[in-house]
Amino acid sequence: MGAVTDDEVIRKRLLIDGDGAGDDRRVNLLLKSFTKWCNSPWTPEEGVTQYQRMLGSLAQCEFSMEKTLMVYEMNLREMDNYEKIYTNIEQNIMSAHEKIAECKKEIQKAKRIRKNRQEYDALAKVIQQHPDRHETLKQLEALDQELQQLSHIKENVDAKLELRKKQFHVLLTTIQELQQTLEHDEKSEHDDHSQGSPAENGE
Asked: How many CB atoms lie within 10 A of CB 18?
């Protein structure tokens, strides 16, 4: 098992001790005890006993205050972490839009190449009808070379487009996993508060 983090320790203490909602009651009881201790004719032994009880109550109030401060700092860290996650998601979405726009441009380019190839094929058929002309044969050879180059370009574009599709799929999958993680964290936090209420009532 991995090492237990400070945040996990704080969460477990909150589940056991409650969310500190009884702090006001502790302080009021401590003030009443102090007033009674000052104004009542205690014997020395009773006075010392009551004094020790007040010290114990004061220690509980101090502990509750420290616990509340730790929870506050933990919430700040979680908020900062969520902001980083949201920023990362927004950047990924922007990057995805840019890649989609780039893929659309490459698709348009591939369509133009296909159209040009069809035109070259039609022209080559016309040229082949006049094989006896030397100049026509030279043009046909040049067109064949250009057609091969265009075919090679199309293959490269098709390969790049397929790679972009795979990258975009991986990106969308990552975004969905991040969103599921956020939803799971929010549900866990809600469940932790729901389980903490009985502990508070039992206190």
From this structure: 20
Nearest to 186 by CA among 81, 111, 97, 103: 81
pLDDT, one tens digit per residue, over 1-35 is 444 455 555 555 444 444 445 666 777 777 787 78
DSSP 137-186: HHHHHHHHHHHHHHHHHHHHHHHHHHHHHHHHHHHHHHHHHHHHHHHHHH
H/E element, 24: helix 23-39
| 3-class secondary structure, 19 | coil
Residue given tokens 């509750």 in the structure block:
64
Tens-digit pLDDT profile for residues 166-198: 888 888 888 888 888 888 877 777 776 666 555
Between helices 134-202 and 44-128, what is the axis angle to 10°?
170
The angle subtended at Cα 73 by Cα 67 and Cα 77, nearest 5°, is 140
CA angle in degrees (0–180, nearest 5) for 183-185-186: 65
Q: What is the DSSP letter of 1?
A: -
Q: For residue 14, count CB atoms less than 10 angstroms from its CB and return exposed for 0-12, middle for 13-18, buried for 19 or more.
A: buried
Separation of alpha carbons 42 and 123, rounded Å: 117
